[in-house]
Design goal:
Layout (H helix, E strand, L loop, with lengths): L1 E5 L11 H13 L4 E5 L1 H10 L6 H10 L5 H10 L7 H8 L5 H27 L4 E5 L5 H14 L4 E5 L6 H9 L5 E3 L3 H11 L13 E3 L5 E3 L20 H6 L11 E3 L2 E2 L2 H5 L15 E2 L2 H15 L3 E4 L12 H8 L4 E5 L6 H9 L4 E3 L7 H7 L5 H13 L3 E2 L4 E2 L6 H10 L14 E2 L2 E2 L3 H4 L9 E2 L1 H4 L6 H7 L2 E3 L7 H17 L4 E6 L4 E6 L7 E4 L2 H9 L6 H11 L7 H13 L3 E4 L2 E4 L7 H17 L14 E2 L12
Parallel strand pairs: 1-2, 1-3, 3-4, 4-5, 8-11, 11-12, 12-13, 13-14, 15-16, 22-25
Antiparallel strand pairs: 6-7, 9-10, 17-19, 18-19, 20-21, 21-22, 23-24
Helix pairs in contact: 1-9, 4-6, 4-7, 6-7, 8-20, 12-13, 17-21, 22-23, 23-24
Length: about 650
């Protein structure tokens, strides 16, 4: 049986499709007489569109990911799905007025007019390959493109079996797709490694399709039927490594080779061990199966090494929703010892400690996404994140110290939050400008299918409707759109516009000034030296020399409340104890100097350790020397005061080093 697997736009062009790589291997190894090839139609589209209009890597990224919550990528291909280059153009223009700039609006509408021709050409290409079965994957903004291609293939060659699967087909979404688009013969819902080979094996004169878990098919009368979903996820031992044959060769022949540095996609685990205990209220990413399961360390390590050797690519994207913590002592040390200079992207939990982060860094997992989302403990509790604001700031600090690039988002709009949760954070953001800022401004949360906010209206969101873009993309009634949609409209909850405006102004300044900001510390035993370059603080260098201050600062490597800090510091400095109110005064001064972040009654220092203490010493002396020689007139060459003590407030008029 000849199978063609198709990866339509807007799948990322810098990554091969993990789903189709796994399915290709599943067919080749587990379907007797079966063989599968992958058509990288996303790369075909890149070459096709750049011959017809000015189109860049940034444009592709916009329709693939950046515009997801507006649905621009799916609307582009709706014209091909409904065979109408002007499909709901006026509705789109009206809905996007004020949301899209003039040039983006023009490009989106021009693409909308052009893509039916591409879909016709790619369908002809598919038919010319003469497969018996063609399978489409659909994730994020691939849905209309995949459906449009399936429709056209069926028009050209009714005998070819059309199948669609992927994240957009999980649960009720897949049943809705099958029910409303009769040119799709089968929909695979859930994990496809077993279901897709099972479907291929069942296709015959008297197929028994009822045994294929999650499969949507039609009975003899043409009525759509959805088999029950699998009751448990696949065991990790049955999850095959992907076969990426053909992707790198096709990328090398595409204009996209000049746009991107390709990465490999690897998978060690599925599900979320945190979500099994505490499902983050806004998260719908795990779909039908939250249960965490991971490959054996040997299997995962061997897959990583084999892919790197075969494709000679060291950049890898780990798709796991959360790191298996066991890999810190099993897989990662072996990667470090391998000598391969891997660069991996991975999602982690924000409460990991510095030693664990250093292991990640040493193993090449230098791009991490810790799911920070907020710096306020009360808002984090509303999310059920299981971390505090100070722990999240500690993550940013320790990530900077260990050489990790921390990617994170700021979210707002949670039922029960208030301006009082945000104002203290906004006031302290200028002190954090030396740490990784969020990737964008704060966004109001979207209500996602499978999330607690979707499944439990008592949490604050009821009367949900599919987001508006589904209504001008698909020709379906509201109840069918509800089954198809992943993102839903809901009344705004939480903070109002003034607080959102203030928050985003602070975040924008953070993003703007981050590259020039600096704060580091070096613990030299008898003193701690700090060097700062942040626009909100006048001081440039200071020393902590008081034994009690040194002890307190060291303890603030981890979040502490004042009472606990006073007790522990007293135990480290005999005879030097301070009362709790004196400790609070010290902490308040350190907050004013931008040395410490506070939230929910806890404090943590925000100065990463200098990479090289000798360099920091020299830098400290350079600041002192520069201060001696700077000045005008009578002040030139004047003596320089000693470095400001962190136990004294830095008054605006004070001259400091």
């Amino acid at each position: 049986m000849r199978v063609l697997l198709v990866n339509m736009p807007w799948s990322p062009i810098d990554l091969p499709s993990l789903a189709l790589g796994i399915l290709k291997r599943s067919v080749d190894e587990h379907v007797p007489g079966g063989s599968a090839e992958v058509l990288h139609a996303n790369l075909e589209f890149t070459d096709w569109i750049t011959r017809r209009m000015e189109f860049t890597a940034e444009d592709y990224e916009y329709y693939a990911l950046a515009s997801y919550f507006m649905g621009c990528g799916d609307w582009v291909f709706s014209s091909a799905l409904y065979d109408d280059p002007a499909w709901r153009d006026a509705e789109f223009a009206a809905a996007m007025k004020g949301k899209l700039g003039a040039s983006r609006m023009r490009m989106t509408r021009e693409l909308h007019q052009l893509v039916p021709e591409f879909v016709s050409e790619i369908a002809r290409r598919i038919v010319d390959e003469a497969p018996e079965v063609v399978g489409f994957t659909s994730t994020f903004q691939q849905n209309t493109a995949a459906l449009a291609a399936a429709r056209q293939v069926k028009l050209l060659a009714p005998h070819i079996v059309t199948v669609i699967g992927g994240a957009n087909c999980d649960g009720e979404q897949g049943a809705t797709v099958h029910r409303n688009f009769p040119f799709v013969d089968y929909v695979i819902r859930g994990e496809g490694e077993a279901a897709f080979p099972g479907l291929l094996a069942a296709l015959g004169e008297n197929p028994d399709l009822s045994t294929v878990a999650g499969l949507c098919h039609r009975d003899p009368d043409g009525v759509s039927t959805a088999n029950p979903m699998a009751t448990s996820p696949l065991p990790p031992a049955t999850i095959l490594p992907p076969d990426y044959s053909g992707y790198f060769e096709r990328l090398g022949a595409s204009v996209a080779r000049n746009w991107v540095e390709p990465k490999l996609v690897v998978e060690g685990a599925r599900g979320c061990w945190w979500g099994e205990k505490h499902h983050c209220t806004f998260c719908g990413l795990n779909g039908s199966f939250m249960q965490f399961r991971s490959k054996s360390p040997d299997t995962f390590y061997d897959e990583i090494m084999e892919l790197a050797r075969r494709h000679r690519v060291l950049d890898m994207y780990v798709v796991d929703n959360i790191l298996d913590m066991g890999y810190l002592s099993t897989v990662l040390p072996r990667i470090i010892e391998s000598g391969y200079d891997l660069r991996l992207h991975i999602e982690i939990k924000a409460n990991m400690r510095r030693a664990q982060l250093r292991t990640l860094s040493d193993a090449g997992l230098i791009y991490v996404q810790p799911g920070i989302e907020s710096l306020n403990s009360r808002v984090l509790d509303l999310m059920d994140k299981g971390v505090s604001g100070c722990q999240n700031v500690r993550m940013l600090r320790d990530g900077a110290e260990t050489g990790l690039s921390v990617s994170w988002n700021y979210l707002h709009g949670f039922p029960g939050e208030s301006a009082e949760d945000y104002d203290p954070v906004i006031a302290q953001i200028p002190a954090l400008e030396h740490l990784n800022p969020p990737v964008d401004l704060s966004a109001r949360i979207a209500i996602e299918r499978f999330s607690p906010y979707f499944n439990r209206p008592e949490l604050g969101f009821s009367g949900l409707r599919p987001e508006a873009h589904y209504r001008f993309t698909y020709d379906l009634p509201e109840e069918e759109l509800y089954g198809l949609a992943y993102v839903f409209e809901a009344p705004e909850r939480g903070i109002g516009k003034p607080t959102v405006t203030a928050l985003n102004a602070a975040l924008a300044a953070w993003r703007k000034h981050h590259a020039d900001a600096r704060l580091t510390q070096a613990d030299l035993g008898d003193r701690i030296v700090l060097v700062s370059k942040r626009r909100a603080f006048q001081w440039r260098a200071m020393e902590l020399t008081d034994p009690y201050e040194i002890a307190a600062f060291r303890l603030l490597d981890q979040p502490h409340a004042p009472a606990a800090l006073a007790r522990k510091a007293a135990g480290r400095v005999p005879g030097g104890a301070l009362q709790e109110d004196e400790v609070r005064e010290l902490l308040d001064r350190w907050v004013a100097l931008g040395l410490v972040f506070t939230d929910n009654g806890q404090y943590v220092h925000i100065a990463p350790s200098a990479v090289n203490e000798d360099l920091l010493r020299l830098d400290f002396m350079r600041h002192r020397h520069a201060a001696r020689v700077e000045g005008d007139g009578d002040d030139a060459g004047a003596p320089v005061p000693a470095p400001v003590s962190a136990s004294a407030p830095a008054e605006p008029h004070m001259t400091v080093v």
